[in-house]
Amino acid sequence: MVPPTKSNPTIQEINAESELLRKEIEELRKEAFRRLEDLDEKLGVSSIGPYKSLTSTEPSISSTATTKSEEGLLPAPPPIVFTKSAEASKKPKKGISNLLDETKWKVSLSIGREPGTWMPKDWGVSGQRLNLSFTAEFTPSQLYEKDEFFRGGYTNAKIMHVVGNEVTLGPSISEGQRLYKVKNGGWQVSQGDGPLGTDLLRFFIELDEEVTHTGSDLYIPKGRVYCSCGYFPLMSGRQSREAVPSMKESFTKELKEVDEQIQKLREKKAEMKPFNMDRLKVGSEIGRLLREAERIQGKIAFAAVREPDKNLLRFSEDADVGLTREGGVCCRVAKGPMMEYHILGRFGVKSVESDKRRGNEQLTSSNE
Fold first, then answer.
1. Among 171, 207, 319, 331, which is most exposed with the fewest C-beta within 10 angstroms?
2. Distance of CA 357 to the CA centre of its chain
């Protein structure tokens, strides 16, 4: 038996199928437009314009004519143009151990006999001192050379560049100023290794030869000279340092309030008759407040180490870190299989203004 032949579709059927396809295309286009809008919001891109239906009667502003074959197709998506967000334009925040990156400091060494040094007995007995100075640049570049002076040998240690690769030895009574060649050294922030868990800055330079004055009983041995001082990060910078009260200020205020309470209670007790129960209660409260005052004084002593007075610190150019104005200097001496660190003296630091900031200030003054 021969199956019946399928009749050709009528014009009405073709139109109905075409209308169905047009509606499906319209729905797909709406979905694509919605996804582009979501992408716009997430990436912060330029606007893609209002949605227009395929059946819109508005004239096209396209520079190219639309052919019959292009009718009903999804339009090409608009180009995505990334805009610079406010967050992206902000300067990235530095971590605690990176606050010295790309900063310059004037370092002044005062070498001479100090209490507790293990240097030879005749070293520096004259009381003279050797005064050296150099400019140090704390670079962010990793130091791969191990040194036991650093915690972990070289973990988180970076290269310290000595500007000009030379140190200046100040004049003495018999000799003038002299220059000595040095190699670049290293630096590291050692967190929690200072008094009461404070942070330390450790760094070294390397002398190419012994440093001394003719006829002096003082000298700095050839090799590495090691320095360390307190390191106090102020993460919020200059404005926060001046606006937010310190721990010591808060504890001092608390102690003052307790002292005022003690004084009032003592005056009240003086007015009471002896062998009075209320008087005994006041005396007991005074004793409790005295113990509280002693506890607060301990907190103040702790805060004085954790947050030293501003006049004891030297701040970086951005005021986001402070170094103690004095630190210790030592050298390493081999004693058989053991290594000892012998005290050589003290050192001080001062931040050096960057070339960039100096140039900006000069430009501002010239414009005025």
1. 171
2. 19
